[in-house]
Amino acid sequence: MQTKPASTYKKPLWHGILLVAGGAIGAGMFALPMVSAGPWFLWASLGFLLVWLVTYLSASLFAKVNISLVENPKTSLNVMHSFSSLVSYVLGKPWARANNLCIIFIMMILMYAYTTAGASIIQSSFSAINIETSPSSRAWLSLCFALATGTIVLIGTTFVSRIMLGLMLAMLISFIIAMFGIYPNLQVEKLFMAKGANSVYLLAAIPVYVTAFACTGLVPSLVRHYENQNAKVNKCIFWGTLLALFVYLIWLTATLGSIGRDGFLQIVKGGSDLGTLNKALVDAGSNPNIQGRLSLFSHCAIITSFLSVGLGLFHFIQDRLSLNKTFRDKSLAASICFVPPAIASFFFPYGFVHAIAYAGMFVAFSFFILPGILALSVFKNQHRPLLKTQSYLAIIFGVLIIILKIAMTLSLLPTFR
């Protein structure tokens, strides 16, 4: 039984726009100024624009594929089918398994990154109230953060959604207040007259930028929400990613323009630590209360990101292992979900930026290469040259991201230090 078309008009566009923007904006934005310190403001801004454009094109491409498959009566697919089901139908189970593994890796890597970031922010907050912690305690703070946030996910989706709503409101308010504290101290000449700024550093930053805009995985949810209306889904993708771009550019302007290139050199030498970034903004002459505001924003962003990714992975594991809602099965799913990133953060507590970049490599496959291949397969009998060009662009860009990350891992790319 089909839903009445009239019902779709009751769903405002801003629901989807916020879903896309909220899925992109999070703790990952703290890595952006640190990887942008090499190319600096102008080159970094051009990198942001490039990644935003290709992300939008790739996500809209996948939306066309999704909607076309759902509308085709021969496919037996409907709006409730997931990313995995769509890939499995078009390319077969091996491709679907490869995509599922990539999704798991993306989520695991991000959870590790957010766990280490959470420990850094907690340590910085203790320092702000004159409670000094030893370097060795950083690993234990990571475990405590993972245990606390993992327990919230284990309690249930409704509980998580309520907490996330409050955290997102607090994150928005604290970000706006923090920007008012930073911008009066901003020095425009620091943005445009940085000695040593070089476009070659952009090569290592692009994989991190890709992670910051990743939203293609939300397309099936948008198709489901707007009941297959292509125009609305496409507008949500466009305006949602554009909103994320706007927020990132504001954040980049505030941080680079306040701290300066020499200040970021010290942050990078210190391991690109989030607590150090917050302290550098205070030391640069921003409002003395800015550290508290940024700490609040940092906590909210990291916990929201962790809960969002953790809940998605928790449900994915429950689905793939056919686990029910008993406490035993939920505990098993939670252990598989949260223990590996917690252990990794314990032994490698300073890997936030590197982890975000590794996530970008897997995002390149699932959110760029795969949509391009799907579109070429689904529309192969149709004369649509623009769509073919769009598909090849997404594939080439995804392959480029993977090559860049491999080159960076092998120390073949210049590093700002």
TrEMBL record:
Which UniProt keywords are present, listed alphabetically? Amino-acid transport, Cell inner membrane, Cell membrane, Membrane, Transmembrane, Transmembrane helix, Transport
Which positions, given as ranges, span the membrane? 12-34, 40-63, 101-126, 138-156, 163-183, 203-224, 236-254, 296-317, 332-350, 356-379, 391-413
Tell me which Pfam families the record gives: Trp_Tyr_perm (PF03222)
State where it is primarily located.
membrane
The places in or outside the cell where this protein is found are: Cell inner membrane
The reply on keyword Transport is yes
| Membrane topology summary | Multi-pass membrane protein
Tell me where on the tree of life, at the top rank, the source sits: Bacteria
Keyword Cell inner membrane among record annotations:
yes
Family per record: Belongs to the amino acid/polyamine transporter 2 family. Mtr/TnaB/TyrP permease subfamily.
Which PANTHER family does the record associate with it? Answer: LOW AFFINITY TRYPTOPHAN PERMEASE-RELATED (PTHR46997), TYROSINE-SPECIFIC TRANSPORT SYSTEM (PTHR46997:SF2)
Question: What's the protein name?
Answer: Aromatic amino acid transport family protein
